[in-house]
Design goal:
By secondary structure, the protein is α+β, with helices and mostly antiparallel strands. The chain is built from seven helices and twelve strands. The strands form three sheets. The chain has a six-stranded antiparallel beta sheet. It has a four-stranded antiparallel beta sheet with strand order 4-9-6-7, with no helix packed on it. It has a two-stranded antiparallel sheet with strand order 11-12.
Length: 286
């Protein structure tokens, strides 16, 4: 899949712009366009996000004339990712004491309103450049998914994590971060906001970021692929303890709820009770 991503990113920007990013769904191609809510600065990368061929997203795939085989291979790869995700969810369901069928129905990739997606990311070669302390390629964030599968290439470092239970400040700024360097054959799995909500906060969203390289560190192009398993838009999600009111996948998608205070204690209930709607803030991914 990395070869397919490279094939697309090698195209002229005018060709890539034929599949522009839809700000409502983040499907399509963008370049230096995603602004971190933590800082207000744009991430230094380009990306293309693709989704299952549903009615509203069918036009956001690269055409075969430019990228032969891209769509077919991506859909096959996404299906394989789904198999991995659901094996993990079966285990989580046992631990949470909830029926796996709840996950299976809400995260059905064959549903017409499936909201799962995959993103190819291309971080530019910055060889020879120096950056201020704390400069990021992607600022700290959590994913809005239930689970995210992240694929990295060995040697291309920069990803760091601050698990939710360790985060003590907004966006985990100033907290302790741990490198998550790629290993051959390994998949990095992030718990996202949807599973945190679903688990009544037993499972915490994982803050992660991509740090700009220091002198002497890997500075060349960095590529990654993320598969986001997200609730269908019509799915209704609620944890077994009913800590929070029911919420639909549509409300989750509209809220970009990483940005909302329902991730923090009592304010969470208030936001969910109000429907968690109206927020259209961009979320970046690693």
């Amino acid at each position: 899949m990395f070869a397919r991503g490279a094939q697309f990113f090698a195209l002229d920007d005018k060709v890539k712009a034929a599949v522009p990013c839809d700000p409502a769904t983040f499907v399509g191609w963008e370049r230096d366009a995603e602004v971190s809510p933590a800082t207000g600065f744009a991430d230094h990368k380009e990306s293309i996000q693709v989704a299952y061929d549903q009615r509203q997203w069918g036009s956001h795939w690269p055409v075969d004339d430019n990228c032969p085989g891209f769509r077919d291979e991506a859909l096959t790869f996404m299906g394989n990712c789904e198999s991995v995700v659901h094996k993990l969810l079966e285990c989580f369901a046992i631990g949470l004491g909830m029926p796996y069928e709840d996950f299976k129905k809400a995260l059905d990739n064959s549903a017409q309103d499936c909201n799962s997606a995959m993103r190819f990311m291309n971080y530019y070669d910055v060889t020879g450049r120096t950056f201020p302390t704390g400069h990021m390629r992607v600022m700290p964030h959590t994913d809005m998914s239930a689970l995210t599968l992240l694929f990295q290439r060995v040697g291309e470092t920069g990803l760091e994590v601050c698990p939710g239970r360790e985060a003590t400040t907004e966006y985990a700024m100033g907290d302790e971060w741990t490198p998550c360097n790629p290993q051959q054959g390994a998949i990095t799995v992030n718990i996202g906001d949807a599973l945190m909500y679903w688990s009544d906060d037993k499972l915490k969203s994982n803050f992660h970021r991509v740090r700009a390289p220091n002198p002497g560190e890997y500075q060349k192009q960095r590529c990654s692929i993320a598969y986001f398993c997200q609730p269908c838009l019509s799915a209704v999600c609620q944890g077994p303890l009913k800590k929070y009111p029911p919420i639909t996948g549509q409300q989750m998608a509209e809220s970009r709820y990483m940005e909302l205070d329902w991730l923090k204690g009592h304010e969470a209930k208030e936001a969910a009770a109000k429907g968690i709607a109206g927020h259209k803030l961009p979320i970046s991914v690693a």
